[in-house]
Amino acid sequence: MQLDYANLAALAAVLRSGSFHGGAEALGVTPSAISQRIKQLEERFGAILILRGKPCTPTAMGNRLLRHIEALELMEVALASDLDLDTPGVGTIRVGVNADSLATWLIDALSKLPDTIFELVICDQDYSDELLRAGEVSIAITGTAEPVQGCDVFPLGQMIYAATAAPSYMARYFPDGVTPEALQRAPPLRFSDRDQLQRQWALQHFGSERLGPSHLIPTTNGFVDACCAGMGWGLNVASMVEQALASGDLVELIPDSRLISPLYWQVMRNQKAAMAPLTDRVLAEARKQLAPMPAASD
User: Residue 279 to residues 118, 120, 140, 149, 274: CA-CA distances in angstroms?
Assistant: First the structure.
């Protein structure tokens, strides 16, 4: 199938800007010209590619075409870099990431690719494989080593979590120590409706995941702040609470009860070459900042 790349560029511009007017401005053409290009593209594929709205969003086929044009842009950027051209251009990568990685180590890797535009989709690492299956992202940090169909998997390392709370919270809810009964009364924190870390910790240490009603705090830094303020207890990235633990602003619910969460980098195989510069930098940064994976047993 021969594709009209001017029309594909129009599709990408509309979806990135969220409107036909924004897409026209991005390409320096009129809105009617953008509309005509999208119409031709939809006639070519015999399907609706953009759902008109505020913002405009892609259909499943439109999303697949967007991922294709982004992969091509990245390959062109890599080629221009290899040839030492003065204007290598800018590529766009849509990445599924967990909030804790974004708040701690991932930015250091992304910042090393100045000729790339990133669209980050926040999703719990235990569910980000769904983004890959749906074609919403081309690459993602996941919590499973099982490859999504059509993907290659690279181990990143382990994120270490500490179950923490303020001393005042401990005195109020756990005066006789942390027990399964006390956990059912003490309000925990949760990042989202899919956040299972607190339940995993409770199951690991008490054999039960029954917890009290929880506060919804959808930011990683907010988790730390809410714990320090005595709102609730929660699983915080250990590196983010080291200072608070050392100063006594936070304490661990149970000493030496860290939760280990392995992380993996999954890349769509048909875009592996285009994603190689990003993959190399992410793996290098993960080796520096994450705990190493355990050695494989014989």
Answer: 13, 15, 10, 18, 10
